[in-house]
Automatic annotation (TrEMBL):
The chain crosses the membrane at residues 6-37, 58-76, 96-129, 136-154, 174-197, 225-245, 251-277, 298-316, 336-365, 412-433. It comes from the Bacteria. It comes from Chitinophaga flava. Belongs to the GntP permease family. It is a multi-pass membrane protein. One of its GO terms (molecular function) is gluconate transmembrane transporter activity. InterPro entries: Glcn_transporter. This is Gluconate transporter.
Amino acid sequence: MPLLIVIAAIILLVVLVTWCKINTFLSFLIVSLLMGLALHMKIGDITQSIQTGIGKTLGSLIVVIVFGSMLGKLVAESGAAQRIAGGLMKLLGARYIQWSLMLTGFIVGIPLFYNIGFVLMVPLIFTVAAQTKLPAVYLGIPMLASLSVTHGYLPPHPSPTALVQQFHANMGLTLLYGILLAIPAIILAGPVFSRYLKRYTGEPGKMFVAAAMPEDQQPGMMPSLFAAMLPVLLLAVTALLKVWIPADQALYHWVTWLGDPLIVMLLAVLNGMYLLGIRRGMTSKKILGLMDDAVKDVAVIILIIGGSGALTQLLHDSKVSEYIAVTLQNMHMHPLLLAWGIAAIIRVCIGSATVAGLTTAGIVAPLIATSGVNPNLMVLATGAGSLMFSHVNDAGFWMFKEYFNLSVKDTIKTWSVMETIVSVTGLIGSLLLSMIV
């Protein structure tokens, strides 16, 4: 019965979000209240669990998410993203134009939230398509595959960051493993898959083509790369140093502190403000305005994550998560495959990768302690599942359709298939990596 109640709760969440068009945060609260009543929890305990869940989930995440949005805004608005793209295209040449766009999407996608990255990078794709006379879809899929992978796999994006916390994983190791899995996923879903997309030669919507920033107004390549990649560098370097430095040394504690996501993102934002703003003569009013806009960009995401935390806490406080863990263990399915499968099903039903990943976390988290599976790989498997087969209930699907001026059928053949390749490759990579680490 508890398992049926949870399944019914997830179905109700799908109905409220997709059919009733109720705000996702409100849907989470409604479902949490009803699920608590169905599980015979005391009324006071239900509201207390909801408040505790929201507080616990957002307590350590909100600063990282907000700082990540601020850095992404600086990278985009300063012209750094455009500089990185232009530099890579010059470096690799016209023959490897797809690879240039793919690398640009990966580098820029790490600090940029997905929707922001999509809107800012698509005009660049159209500009390159006009210059090279190549189809926009053929050029765009590799870059958007990179953005999708960074969104689903890698911290400091909201869902992977939240999963790191809920699975008690290590953010630095998750990032390193995630990059290892991201490389084959992006290559297969990008340059390899797009080889079959040259026949999609329709003209993109002209209203979406934005004016490019003049090259003499863009920051230099090195400051642009350093500002965008500093979070990755700090997380990766501190994770590697902790492997070599004995835990009883004072240096180890300093390295641990520098590798804390809050410190990493704070340093990255301060560095970005200086390199991409102050150093280039940007006024303090302009910089503070960008910071304010960045917070507005992620307000909805923060609420969704808080709502998912309420549902997760109820699963924990009602003891139903323990029951589900025992039940799932009896299925004799690999925990990574199970996490991917549940996330994939919720993703296909709801459409939101963030909601799919965070809802799955509350269900499968107890399996980590009982199965001994690597929590870093659980983050990646869940994240990969949350990207599975984007279709008509996903905002990204419609953004791609409208920007690239495709039919629904052609969008499924291009965008949806790309998302599926990314998801399945992530699962296979997680399973293979689990044999080594």
